[in-house]
Amino acid sequence: MTKPIYLDHAATTPVDPEVISAMLPYFAEEYGNPSSVHMWGQRAQHAVKSGREKIAAVLNCSADEIIFTACGSESDNLAIRGAALTARESGRGSHIVVSAMEHPAVLNTARSLRDQDGFELTELGVDEHGMTSTDDLSNALRSDTVLVSIMYANNEIGVIAPIAELAKAAHDQGAIFHTDAVQAGSQLPLDIEALGVDMLSLGAHKFYGPKGVGVLYARSGTALQPTQTGGNQEAGRRAGTHNVPLIVGMAAALEITEERRNRDGTRMEALRDRLIKRILELVPDSRLTGHRTERLPNNASFVFANIDGNELLMHLDLAGITASSGSACKTGSPEPSTVTRSLRLSQRWELGSLRLSLGRYTASDDIDYTISMLPDIIKRMRAENG
Ligand SMILES: Cc1ncc(COP(=O)(O)O)c(C=O)c1O
Asked: Is 156 in the pocket of ligand 1 (CB under 6 A)?
């Protein structure tokens, strides 16, 4: 092995060197507060405005529909709490629909609205590929449904949802539609008009931007109660002094991502397909999780029978391959994640999940090396465990 191989881009990505250069002046030279009226403040405000416009251009929306937050989780919280509480106050109802496979940032927020605030919640099941069906959504919608939140692409198994179709079904019943596009941000088109959503969440660290900054797109006219109160930043929708360097970095990162999107996607898809094909050929009792074609270009996720995913991660780490598993070790015993559980796999499969997520800089050699190591590691683990 020559260098460690990072196949965990779904967890986070390295910051693009161009993004670092764009951010640097805003730490120590242009450090003004954008809310200040003086020259320093005005220059910082200009940087924030320019970042907002760049992001709006990628999303094909207007600049005042962009709300800066501190991460994807905060964007999800603001979207779900903010819209649900406002809609209920205006007497429109108190029913929310989410998919059972949402990231905890959505799922736990919706559950908290149910448990603490008296909302009714429907968690939509998914099929064996992790797909949410539009018919199931239509059947779950009611006249008092105020909000639907379904993720654009899943973080563990990479499955891509038919967002435009789902959003239309929600709109036909008068509900607001939010999508968590945190995983999709680096790889899928983000044109709001084509997607037809009312709200969309992004987090910069998934698209080669800095950690600690995110975006919520909220369609003009979508009333949102702020989850963070204080000053009047972001038109009263999110209080707190703007994080100027991170906003500048996020805008630069999204522009670069948009410019590279198609060619990066095509390249990663070819590597991903080779990886999937060879692993399924070489590892007995292995399955792909998620949909074969409707999946993120960078996501290869598997389950292996009679394997502990966490143990597998340790063996891979020792071999220089960084990956991730859906099963987490809770109170000493491994448990499948919500996502793996929602695929309804039998017991001998459900703990053996592995996610390999490729990135912009993943080389063909990295994939070859992984293909050369993973089957033997699994063979050895199975032999050791009898
Ligand atoms: C689908 C999805 N939503 C939300 C989040 C949370 O984003 P952040 O880490 O920016 O809070 C993540 C991060 O893993 C994610 O994958």
From this structure: no
